[in-house]
UniProtKB/TrEMBL annotation:
Keywords carried by this UniProt record: Aspartyl protease, Cell membrane, Hydrolase, Lipoprotein, Membrane, Protease, Transmembrane, Transmembrane helix
Function, as annotated: This protein specifically catalyzes the removal of signal peptides from prolipoproteins.
Family classification: Belongs to the peptidase A8 family.
Organism: Deinococcus xinjiangensis
Name assigned to this protein: Lipoprotein signal peptidase
Catalysed reaction equations from the record: Release of signal peptides from bacterial membrane prolipoproteins. Hydrolyzes -Xaa-Yaa-Zaa-|-(S,diacylglyceryl)Cys-, in which Xaa is hydrophobic (preferably Leu), and Yaa (Ala or Ser) and Zaa (Gly or Ala) have small, neutral side chains
Region span, Disordered: 1-20
E.C. code: 3.4.23.36
Entry-linked HAMAP family: LspA
First-listed, main subcellular location of the protein, grouped into a coarse class: membrane
Source organism superkingdom: Bacteria
Lineage: Bacteria, Thermotogati, Deinococcota, Deinococci, Deinococcales
Length: 189
C-alpha cells in the first residue's frame, strides 16, 4: 500500500535533471479536492435537512428504490453501528481534524487524481458528520438498505445500520483505497 501513498513525484524532487527529462506529472488540479469536498458536504447537509423536514423518527421506512434503498430517520450519537454512543462532540472534533488534515495533506503533497478523489471522499464524509456532531450533538441518518440488512440478518441476525451520504463517502473512499492497495506498483523507467 505504500506505493499508493507516495502519490505523485514532484519535479522539485529532481532539480538536477534538465526540464525535458523530469518526470511528467498527472497531478490533480489544486482546485479539485476543495471543490469536490464542498460539493459532497453541501449534498450531505441538504439531504440531512430534507430528512429532518420530511421524515419522522420511529416511522416505518419509505421505499425509494424498491428493495435497495428506503428513507428512515434516525440519529446516532456515536460512530458506526452506534459504537461510542454519547460521544458525538468528542467524535466530531476527531472527524473534523481528520477531514481537514486530509485536505491539508492533499494541498501540501499533491497526489494522483485517483488518490486525491479517494482521500477527498473520506475527508468530506468525516467533516459532513462532524458538522452534525458539533451543531446538534448527534448525526442524522436516513438511508436504510433492505438488501444490506438481508445480508447482515443472514450473517448475524441484525439489521444493517441506517446511514447517510457522509458515511457512504467514508466507506466508498476506504474501500477504493483498500482495493487500490492491491494494484501492482508502476515500475519507473
Amino acid at each position: 500500500m505504500a506505493h499508493i501513498l507516495h502519490g505523485v513525484t514532484s519535479s522539485s524532487t529532481a532539480p538536477d535533471l534538465p526540464p525535458a527529462t523530469r518526470p511528467t506529472l498527472r497531478r490533480t488540479p489544486i482546485w479539485l479536492p476543495p471543490l469536490l469536498f464542498l460539493v459532497l458536504i453541501v449534498l450531505d447537509q441538504l439531504l440531512k435537512t430534507w430528512a429532518l423536514a420530511n421524515l419522522k423518527l420511529g416511522e416505518p421506512p419509505i421505499s425509494f428504490i424498491r428493495g435497495l434503498i428506503d428513507w428512515q430517520l434516525t440519529f446516532n450519537t456515536g460512530a458506526a453501528w452506534s459504537m461510542f454512543s454519547g460521544s458525538a462532540k468528542f467524535l466530531a472534533f476527531g472527524r473534523l481534524l481528520v477531514g481537514l488534515g486530509i485536505l491539508g495533506y492533499l494541498y501540501y503533497r499533491p497526489q494522483s487524481r485517483f488518490l486525491s478523489v479517494v482521500l477527498t471522499l473520506i475527508a468530506a464524509g468525516a467533516v459532513g458528520n462532524a458538522i452534525d456532531g458539533l451543531r446538534a450533538g448527534r448525526v442524522t441518518d436516513m438511508i436504510h438498505s433492505p438488501a444490506l440488512s438481508a445480508v447482515t440478518t443472514a450473517l448475524n441476525g441484525t439489521l444493517f445500520p441506517i446511514f447517510n451520504l457522509a458515511d457512504s463517502c467514508v466507506v466508498l473512499g476506504t474501500l477504493l483505497l483498500l482495493v487500490a492497495s492491491f494494484w501492482p506498483e508502476k515500475k519507473k523507467p
